[in-house]
């Protein structure tokens, strides 16, 4: 089973006179451990697509399956639990809690997902080791560099082993150095921690980090490029 499968997903906003077809029958699969990018111009339907996969929005028709579970069959409450337990989110502004240390920020993500308390310390230390942030675990966000905060945020998104990690314009408002740190972190989550990632972006540099990029326009997929298709080596 693919981690994510979209089957003819349509989303229509509005009614009567003013109707917008934001998604016009989108179908694709994302396999386990894949890092895919969704690219398209403003208004092409990227946010709507991401919101539907994130269970924040509901498709008008079609199906979205995560690890074989059809999201369109779940109630609002089940969707909230599914989002909490099975998905990780990466935000460009980190979203760390200022009053908690790095350790506490990461541990909180496990507590929210009802992890066994006795399992939390070893899990946090293991992920911190992998991401190279052991030395900042006792620090507060304001005591860390931007890159360290980014890694703590990545640790928090992935510590509970979500089926799917979603990144919405992760480099959108960042300067080029911060954007590079963000993309390195996503790359590390994918390659070292085997995270399955779907990233929505209008930034070609960001998209170049994905293994496969789907291009969307007017709510339809119109092209797909795999990394390697454009390079001579690899
Ligand atoms: P993108 O993220 O690629 O910029 P969006 O998914 O935000 O595109 O928008 C796709 C289309 O759907 C646009 O025409 C947009 O105006 C419309 N749209 C998005 N959200 C809503 C909404 N809540 N109500 C009405 N129209 C919407
Ligand atoms: P972005 O594409 O950067 O996420 P947008 O400007 O497309 O931002 O949308 C911002 C918010 O406004 C989203 O929640 C979207 O659903 C909503 N939105 C977008 N277009 C419309 C619209 N035509 N009518 C109502 N809401 C909209």
Q: List the total number of helices.
A: 7
- The averaged pLDDT comes out at 91
Q: What is the C-alpha radius of gyration, as a whole number of Å?
A: 18 Å
Poorly predicted runs of 5 or more residues? none
Organism: Xiamenia xianingshaonis
Domain ABC transporter: 4-234
GO molecular function, one term: ATP binding
Protein name: ATP-binding cassette domain-containing protein
What does this structure look like?
Residues 4-234 form the ABC transporter domain. Keywords: ATP-binding, Nucleotide-binding, Transport. This is ATP-binding cassette domain-containing protein. The chain is an alpha/beta fold. It has 7 helices and 10 strands. It has helices spanning 46-53, 76-86, 102-112, 120-131, 146-158, 176-191, 204-207; strands at 4-13, 20-30, 35-39, 61-66, 69-70, 87-90, 164-168, 197-201, 212-217, 220-226. Strands 6-7-8-3-9-10 form a 6-stranded mixed beta sheet. A 4-stranded antiparallel beta sheet has the order 2-1-4-5, covered by helices on one side. Helix 6 (176-191) links the parallel strand 7 (164-168) and strand 8 (197-201). Helix 3 (102-112) crosses helix 4. The longest helix has 16 residues, at 176-191. It is globular. Bound molecules: adenosine-5'-diphosphate (2 copies). The site of one adenosine-5'-diphosphate (ADP) has 12 residues, from strand 2 and helix 1.
Structure keywords:
single chain, 234 residues, alpha/beta, 6-stranded mixed β-sheet, 4-stranded antiparallel β-sheet, 7 helices, 26% strand, globular, binds adenosine-5'-diphosphate
């Amino acid at each position: 089973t693919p981690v994510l499968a979209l089957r003819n997903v349509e989303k229509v906003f509005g009614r009567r006179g003013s109707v917008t077809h934001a998604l016009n029958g989108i179908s694709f699969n994302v396999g386990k451990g894949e890092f895919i990018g969704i690219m398209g111009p403003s208004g092409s339907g990227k946010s709507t697509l991401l919101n539907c996969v994130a269970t924040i929005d509901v498709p008008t028709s079609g199906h979205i399956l995560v690890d074989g579970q059809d999201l369109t069959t779940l109630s609002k409450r089940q969707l909230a639990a599914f989002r909490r337990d099975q998905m990780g989110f990466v935000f460009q502004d980190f979203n760390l809690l200022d009053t908690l240390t790095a350790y506490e920020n990461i541990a909180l993500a496990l507590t929210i997902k009802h992890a066994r308390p006795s399992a939390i310390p070893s899990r946090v230390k293991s992920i911190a080791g992998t991401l190279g942030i052991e030395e900042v675990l006792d620090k507060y966000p304001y005591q860390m560099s931007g890159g360290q905060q980014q890694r703590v945020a990545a640790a928090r998104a992935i510590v509970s082993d979500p089926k799917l990690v979603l990144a919405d314009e992760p480099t959108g408002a960042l300067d080029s150095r911060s954007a590079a740190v963000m993309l390195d972190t996503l790359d590390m989550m994918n390659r070292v921690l085997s995270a399955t990632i779907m990233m929505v972006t209008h930034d070609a540099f960001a998209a170049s980090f994905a293994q496969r990029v789907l291009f969307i326009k007017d709510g339809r997929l119109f092209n797909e490029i795999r990394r390697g298709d454009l390079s001579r080596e690899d």
